[in-house]
Task: inverse folding
């Protein structure tokens, strides 16, 4: 929580423990935190530099915590000032850039990023710089960053950036596919499924896009595309795929408020995956259920809705609001 002011986990733990105790000997503090004394002392020295702790003047080897309201307040004030200065510098640089690029050359509209590390770094930058919405087309074969490694997505979502994501059906069969999508849905991201997406794609604020440019056996390469007719075309491509994709809902995404009597969240998880194109066996595997259980629950949904075929069940699912093209 205090990483924003430059403290790592160990330093924060030491400071919190010292605040709780008010004052403590180095050996006592190390024992309480189950840390080596040398590591504890290094953390205390760093905290001392930040003005968060001090050595007792009356007792050697004893450390005292500075009042958090005063010490942390000073650090936050300093950081706010530094951020304001950085914002001013950024505004000046942006104005200089606009003045020089009133008529940007073609090569200024497209960047070529080469290498797995560089591609991953630019991918994270794109999301962290978004302010309103990120749109993405996702395949089952990551180039530089897997879904589990995409911490930027969670951080952007926590800032209020909305996500619309279309995944290929193959993603649902990956070992971590359902876990990643469940996490995304729990952050109120909108996820849809299609058989195939035409390309990997991520677009931030409809102003900056990234697409792969990689052949077999070559180093990962991507294009970063700035505002242009090409970017508008890519955004149009995303919207077309989004319109035709099937909404996906999994556990914890709000079934209970819309399911109605007789259908529980597990029933509708099963229905969502079936409508996304998975077989009964694949659904059973993904949800860690028995095949007979899946089939029994589907039969129960058919009886609940009074239909005789799964096609009719899908139609009734839309009618009852269990699945929808747009958020309810």
Result:
């Amino acid at each position: 929580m205090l990483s924003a002011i430059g403290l790592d986990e160990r330093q924060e733990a030491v400071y919190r423990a010292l605040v709780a105790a008010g004052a403590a000997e180095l050996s006592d503090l190390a024992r309480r935190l189950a840390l080596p004394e040398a590591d504890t002392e290094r953390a205390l020295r760093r905290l001392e530099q930040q003005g968060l702790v001090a050595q007792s003047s009356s007792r050697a080897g004893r450390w005292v915590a500075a009042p958090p309201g005063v010490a942390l307040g000073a650090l936050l004030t300093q950081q706010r000032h530094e951020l304001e200065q950085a914002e001013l510098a950024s505004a000046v640089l942006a104005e200089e850039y606009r003045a020089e690029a009133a008529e940007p050359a073609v090569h200024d509209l497209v960047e070529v990023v080469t290498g797995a590390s560089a591609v991953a770094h630019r991918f994270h930058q794109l999301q962290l710089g978004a302010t309103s919405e990120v749109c993405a087309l996702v395949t089952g074969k990551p180039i530089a960053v897997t879904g589990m490694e995409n911490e930027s997505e969670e951080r952007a979502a926590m800032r209020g950036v909305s996500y619309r994501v279309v995944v290929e059906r193959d993603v649902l069969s990956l070992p971590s596919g359902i876990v990643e999508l469940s996490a995304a849905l729990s952050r109120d991201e909108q996820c849809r499924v299609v058989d195939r997406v035409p390309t990997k794609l991520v677009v931030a604020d409809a102003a900056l896009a990234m697409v792969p440019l990689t052949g077999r056996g070559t180093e990962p390469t991507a294009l970063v595309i700035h505002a242009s007719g090409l970017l508008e075309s890519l955004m149009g491509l995303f919207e077309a795929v989004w319109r035709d994709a099937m909404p996906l809902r999994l556990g914890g995404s709000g079934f209970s408020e819309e399911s109605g009597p007789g259908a529980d969240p597990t029933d509708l998880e099963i229905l969502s995956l079936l409508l996304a194109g998975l077989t009964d066996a694949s659904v059973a595997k993904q949800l860690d259920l028995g095949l007979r259980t899946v089939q029994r629950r589907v039969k129960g949904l058919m009886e609940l809705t009074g239909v005789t075929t799964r096609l009719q069940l899908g139609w009734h699912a839309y009618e009852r609001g269990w699945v929808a093209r747009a958020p309810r």
About this structure: The chain has 13 helices and eleven strands. Confidence is low (pLDDT under 50) at residues 252-261. The chain has three domains: 1-103, 108-247, 255-319. The first strand starts at residue 23 and ends at 25.
